[in-house]
Amino acid sequence: METYSVDIQELNAKIEKESEFIEMIRLEMQKVIVGQKHLVESLLIGLLADGHILLEGVPGLAKTLAIKTLASTINAGFNRIQFTPDLLPADLIGTMIYSQKQENFMVKKGPVFSNFILADEINRSPAKVQSALLEAMQERQVTLGEETFKLPNPFMVLATQNPIEQEGTYPLPEAQVDRFMLKTIIGYPSKEEESLIIRENIGSSFPQATQVVNIEKILNARKSVRDIHISDKIENYILDIVFATRNPEKYGLSEIKNLINYGASPRASINLALAAKALAFIRHRGYVFPEDVKIICLDVLRHRIGLSYEADAENITQDDIINKILNKIEVP
C-alpha cells in the first residue's frame, strides 16, 4: 500500500472546488464552437499545463475560431499570424526602428507579444521564421537589439498545419516539433453538428463568447494542476510507454522495432505526466487515473516518434505504433 504525503480526499475536494470554472469556459465555448470536444479539451490542457499545441486538420474546422473564443472567455490578448514564404522574423517578434524625432532607435514589438498566438500554417514559412517563434515558445522571451523582453503570461502558441498541401511548405524539423506539448488531429464534424453549424452561420447574428474568468484564476489553476497527485504506479506506466518507443523489444514488441527510427524524448515523459494532471483537473479530480494517460497519449507522442522507411512503405502511422504499445503495456 502506498503512503500518501497528501490527504487525497482533502486534495480532491480542493481541486473539485477550484476547477468549477472549467465548466463555465466550456459552456461559453459551446455557444460558438459546435462539437469539436477533443479540440476544446486539448486547448484547455495546453492552457492549464502551460504547453503549446500543434493542430493538424483541413481548412474550415474552426481552429482559429476555437482559440479566439478561448481568449474571449479569459479576456486575454489574441493575435493571428499568417505564415507565408516571404515572412521575416521581424514580422513576428518585432524590430528596432529609428525615430527621427528622438534621434535614436526605438523598439517596435511584433504580434508575438500577446497571450494567445495562432500561427496559421506554420509550415509555409522558412526555417528562420519558424525558429524565431520556437525560441519565443521555449524561452518565453524575445531579444530585440541589446534588450530582452519577457512575453506576457500566460503565453500559448497554437500552430496549425494543413495535411493536404505539401507543395511550397517547409516541414518543421523534429527537434522543433518536440517543443509542442500536444499534436492534435482535428476531424470533420458529424452530420447533426454540421447542420447546426450551417444554422448558426446563416442566422441573423452569430453567437459571441463573453469573459467568465480572469487571467489570475488561470495562473492559480496552473499551480493547482502541479499539486494533483500522480502515484508511483502511474509514473512507472508513463515511463514504460515512453521507453517502449525507444526499446520496443524489451517490452515484447519486437515486430515494431524496425518501424521506428527514434523514440520519444524525455520531454514526452514530462508532458505525458503534466497533460494527465491537467486532464484530471478538467475532470475535477485531485489524482490521475491510468485512463487519463491513455486518453492523452496519442496527442503527446504522435509527433515525437520517427518512422522508418519500412513503416512508410507499409503505411503504418505513429498512431498505429502508439496503439500497439498501449495494448501491450500492462495498465496499473
Low-confidence stretches: none
How many DSSP H or I helices? 14
The helix fraction, in percent, is 40-55%
Beta content:
5-15%
Whole-number total of structural domains: 2
Mean pLDDT: 85
- CATH top level assignment of the largest domain: Alpha Beta
H/E order of the elements? HHHEHEHEEEHEEEHEHHHEHHEHH
- SS content category: alpha/beta
The CATH architecture of the largest domain can be given as 3-Layer(aba) Sandwich
Write structural notes for this entry.
- The structure is a single chain.
- The protein is globular and about 70 Å long.
- Helix 2 (21-32) packs across helix 4 and helix 10 packs across helix 11.
- A five-stranded parallel beta sheet has the order 2-5-8-1-9. Strands 3-4 form a two-stranded antiparallel sheet. A two-stranded antiparallel ribbon has the order 6-7.
- The protein has 332 residues and is α/β, with parallel strands linked by helices.
- It has two domains: 20-217, P-loop containing nucleotide triphosphate hydrolases (Rossmann fold, 3-Layer(aba) Sandwich), CATH 3.40.50; 228-328, Magnesium chelatase subunit I, C-Terminal domain (Helicase, Ruva Protein, domain 3, Orthogonal Bundle).
- 37% of the residues are buried.
- The chain has helices at residues 8-18, 21-32, 37-49, 63-74, 89-93, 127-139, 174-177, 191-202, 215-227, 232-246, 266-282, 290-301, 309-313, 318-328, and strands at residues 53-56, 78-82, 94-99, 104-109, 116-120, 141-144, 147-150, 156-161, 182-185, 260-262, 306-307.
- The protein contains 14 helices and eleven strands.
